[in-house]
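We now fix the convention by which a protein and its fold are recorded. Think of the row as the fold of the chain written in a discrete alphabet. Here is one such record, which you should read through line by line.
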Amino acid sequence: MARSSRRSRRRSGNSAGLIVGAIALGLVSVAIIGAFGWLKYRASSTVAVDKASLCPVTGATSETAILLDVTDPISDTTALDLKNQFQQIVARVPVGGAIDIYSLTEKEGEPERTFHACNPGSGELADEWTSNPRLIQDRWEKGFQKPLEDIAGRLASGKAGDASPIMAGIQRINLEVFSSLPAGTPKALFVASDMIEHTPAFSNYRDGVAYSKFQKSEARDKFRTSLDGVSVKILAFQRPNLKFSAEELAEFWREWITNNNGYFDGFIRLEGKR
């Protein structure tokens, strides 16, 4: 009986070992499957981007547009202040957010688009498990950071012009960039200019800054545009010998923006004067 009991205990011990081993193997398998599933989920949750624009194929998550008015030269001091402001604007564009940069020209409604891309995120934000941080950093530098740095370096290269159709430029940007965006997409417009509208339809030089006079002009209907949901901030160059104050000019543009259903986000007078 004793010998039989020992054999029984030995078989029982072997069975227990097999059970523990099977459980351990099962747990390891579950862990491997779980880790694979987690990596697959992380990879699938990464949104693909368009190779040309670096924008998510599902669409940009926000839109920032900048209108640069260099139809007249600006001082070196103003250019430096503008460059600093420009870099701050770019730095605030979120990953997946688009930025479009236009240069104002003398031709009404024909600003030149000089840049369009989305912020793809730098290599620092890349997931080492599911992507290649070095390739992402290279893509960010070549397709986003470097072109914007080049634009920032040319901000003082304006030439004197005969017209400054700021309203028409804003109208064109609104139609090309903002109007087609899905509802709820954050939209911001920055206008870097002396903000002196000068066209045959209306000119601050000729007609002043009384908004009541503008409302009676041809420009009111010609340049009206629906800025619904668009936040507009002005970075103003200061010009000498004007017949109106910077405060009066700011009020004129506040009225124009709000009368076109936009949100007036401020009028910043850049340093320097020319």
Summary: The two ends are 112 Å apart (CA to CA). Residues 67 and 191 are 5 Å apart (CA to CA).
